[in-house]
Amino acid sequence: MRTNNKHLNKIMLFWDLVIVSSGIALDQWTKALMTRYLKGQPSISVIKNILELDYVENRGAAFGMLQGKRIYFLVIAAVVFFLFAWLLLKLPPEKKYQKLHIALSFILAGAVGNTIDRGIKGYVVDFVYFKLIDFPVFNVADIFITVTTIWLAVLLLFFFKEEDFDFLRRNTGQKMDNGNE
């Protein structure tokens, strides 16, 4: 049984790596395309008065907050990377946890994609603009992070129970406290 579990762990981690690396590749490829074809150019209307492609260099966080705090973002990204990587390694390989593996992998891909930009360029390339609602310009990594975080919240609130995460307490050496001492 243990051999089967180890085999399942390897398969699950392989797919985690496929999702993370594919997500990073897609994010970096789209940013490279936008940099090549949109930088210094007027925005391109995809759906008139609704959706545009508009090259923006974002030196802040989501929606342009915290402009110029590059070191802060790199430190936060490192913490997120190690936390999510640790969680992916600790998640059991059972089918029940597959959705969590996928969600954590997409969030990790988005975080790494934006961190690559910040680390190399000092800014993140954003290019998707919903003109209809004047929503801040964003990118593929932001889509991964935002959509998957919402999905993760739904999973944690409605699909999983507290006892589904007992494996974390066992793996970290914490005693379980259910209030019945």
How many E strands? 3
Number of domains: 1
* Structural shape: elongated
Estimated radius of gyration: 19 Å
State the separation between the terminal residues, measured CA to CA.
Answer: 34 Å
Please, how many helices? Answer: 5
Along the chain, the helix and strand elements come as HEEHHEHH
Folded structure, characterized:
The protein has helices spanning 2-38, 70-90, 98-120, 140-159, 166-172; strands spanning 44-47, 51-58, 124-130. The protein has 181 residues and is mainly α. The protein has one domain (2-171). Strands 1-2-3 form a three-stranded antiparallel beta sheet. Helix 1 (2-38) packs parallel to helix 3 (98-120) and helix 2 packs antiparallel against helix 3 (98-120). The model is unreliable at 175-181 (pLDDT under 50).
Topology record:
Elements lengths: L1 H37 L5 E4 L3 E8 L11 H21 L7 H23 L3 E7 L9 H20 L6 H7 L9
Antiparallel strand pairs: 1-2, 2-3
Helix pairs in contact: 1-3, 2-3, 3-4
Keywords:
3-stranded antiparallel beta sheet; 10% strand; 5 helices; 3 strands; mainly alpha; 181 residues
Quick overview:
The protein is mostly helical and 181 residues long. 60% of the residues lie in helices and 10% in strands.
